[in-house]
Amino acid sequence: MRSIWKGSIAFGLVNVPVKVYTATEDHDIRFHQVHAKDGGRIKYDRVCTVCGKSVQYADIDKAYESPDGDKVILTDEDFAKLPAAEKHEIPVLQFVPNEQIDPILFDKSYYLEPDSSTPKAYVLLATTLDRIDRTALVHFTLRQKTRLAALRVRDGMLVLQTLLWPDEVREVDFESLDGVAEPKPQEIKMAETLVETMSDDFDPDQFTDEYQIELKRLLDEAIASGTGKVPEQPEAAPAEMDAEVVDLVAALQRSLEASGRRAAGGADDNGKAKPAKKAAAKKTPAKKAAAKSTAKPAKKTAKKAAARKGA
Questions:
Q1: Residue 40 DSSP one-character state
Q2: pTM score > 0.85 for this model?
Q3: Torsion angles phi and psi, residue 88, rounded to 5
């Protein structure tokens, strides 16, 4: 990995020199646009709508158009006049409880590596953050843009996660949720049972991007064919779809049955809780009755055999 930024964290009067690295990467397969007829690469040209000529990137400025149609053009010099935080400093603003930061605010993540021959201050800050179970709110300026960010610890390393500003999160007000009836107790009970049957510890390695795997397979087949195109394959017959289940309780019941946990379950046909122990207790009398019924015919058979011998 290559660092994209160098600076220091300002923690009170303590400076912690760090290097910044992008913590995530995109594995999406990139495609070029080509002419379907001959496979020629499609190129884009920046053309001015006024003079009709091609414009070099160095000759392009940025323009803003207001809702009223007023246009303003800004140059690089204009942007340089705007106030920005210190470009090579990450000041700690305050420490807040971890649970108070809504995950919807998280944007991009960066690793911070100590940039000092004696990273004692780095380890001190990381250890302190880990022990107090709080997140440091900081200012972070990257590519001339200042963001609010969360500084926390992951596997002993400091991680910086930029945050969206509050006005960047849309307000939700959907009329479709107005006046909706509350779920029935039996629906809630069955939904909770279903959640329990599907609950487990989170392990990200259990999940794979099936789309990317299949896309890579298609590309490998096209390359192996030598034609540059994916070989034709017979389409699989579509699986039969069940009729739409309108009743919510029926849908939950079917989900429980599919999970294979209904018997150990938690719910009968009416959606009420049914302990597994009671079901086992009912089986015991059934076994005794079966034993008695098989024993009686055996005794009668023995008497008949003795009578025949006496005769």
A1: P
A2: no
A3: -120, 35
Is there a contact between 214 and 230 (Cβ–Cβ < 8 Å)? no
**Dihedral angle over CA of 199, 200, 205, 208, nearest 10:** -20
What pLDDT, on the 0 to 100 scale, is given for residue 296? 46
> Minimal CA–CA distance to 136: which of 115, 168, 161?
161
Token representation of residue 102:
């809504």
| Residue 42 predicted with pLDDT over 50 | yes
Q: Report DSSP state, residue 227.
A: S
Place of tokens 């011998």: 309
- Residue 198 to residue 204: CA distance in whole angstroms: 16
- 5-11 and 89-97 strand pairing: parallel
Tokens of 12: 């009170």
Long-range CB contacts (within 8 A, 24+) of 271-275 = 271/186, 271/187, 271/189, 271/190, 272/186, 272/189, 273/189, 273/193
pLDDT for position 94: 94
Q: Which of 79, 99, 84 is nearest to 142 (CA)?
A: 84
CA distances from 270 to 184, 249, 264, 299 (A): 12, 9, 16, 45
Contact between 225 and 231 under an 8 Å Cβ cutoff? The reply is yes
The answer to whether 118 and 135 are in contact (CB under 8 A) is: no
From first CA to last CA, the distance across the chain in angstroms is 102
Looking up tokens 């500084």, which residue turns up?
A: 151
- Measured CA to CA, the distance from residue 300 to residue 298 in angstroms comes to 6
Residue 215, token pair as written in the block: 């896309």
Q: Measured between alpha carbons, how far is 44 from 172 in angstroms, rounded to an integer?
A: 38
| Run of H or E residues at 22 | strand 14-22
pLDDT score of 148? 93
- 53/59 Cα distance (integer angstroms): 12
Q: pLDDT for 199-227, tens place per residue? A: 888 888 888 888 888 888 888 888 888 87
